[in-house]
Design brief:
Helix content is 77%, strand content 0%. The chain is mainly alpha-helical.
Length: 200
């Protein structure tokens, strides 16, 4: 399983809070290019139903190792962009909220069980759930915001969440790390279940 250097892990852990603070400070507007980017960026990061699934993608990718560690975090945003385009175009996708909640349950359990799925199967699961998440992003495009900059914002936010999941997933190579990673998967599955049951 690939390992990140201490300096790389430190960079990820220091960069994410700074980006979140900067985004939160500007999230009051959806207008204009910067407003569109910030709205898109904050949409996945401040929505727990999105956060748990996107972190789970990174966790599972790290547990699967190469090539999944880079394939899954690319498949998700690419198909999420397809789903967003469908949402912006007004094309219906059935049971979007259910699909989003279910993504947390399924991906969280994949981490808990350290499920060794073939790459094509893992990619298919991640891709299907990405369309649900993307559709939700697309239908919530703020009025007067640029679809391009909004889309770029939510793609960047999503990739950061994937990277956070990967960084956490790589802890599985350390003592007690496997327990911590599986526990994180359990929390994700529980949060997804709460959204699925309508209690979150």
């Amino acid at each position: 399983m690939p390992r990140l250097s201490r300096s790389a892990l430190r960079s990820v852990s220091l960069s994410l809070p700074l980006l979140l603070v900067a985004a939160a400070a500007q999230a009051h507007t959806g207008a204009g290019p910067m407003g569109g980017f910030v709205s898109g960026f904050t949409h996945p990061i401040f929505g727990w139903d999105h956060v748990v699934a996107m972190v789970a993608v990174g966790l599972w990718a790290a547990l699967l190792g190469r090539p999944a560690i880079w394939v899954l975090p690319l498949v998700f945003p690419l198909l999420m962009a397809v789903g967003a385009a469908m949402g912006i175009a007004g094309l219906p996708v059935p049971a979007v909220e259910t699909g989003i909640a279910l993504s947390g349950v399924v991906l969280g359990l994949a981490v808990v069980l350290a499920l060794r799925a073939p790459l094509w199967a893992a990619g298919a699961v991640v891709g299907v759930f990405a369309i649900f998440h993307g559709h939700a992003h697309g239908t919530e495009l703020p009025q007067n915001a640029s679809a391009l900059t909004y889309g770029l914002g939510f793609l960047v936010g999503t990739l950061l969440l994937h990277l956070g999941g990967i960084a956490l997933g790589l802890l599985a190579t350390r003592p007690l790390g496997q327990i911590a990673v599986r526990a994180a998967g359990g929390v994700i599955a529980l949060v997804g279940g709460a959204f699925l049951a309508g209690i979150a």
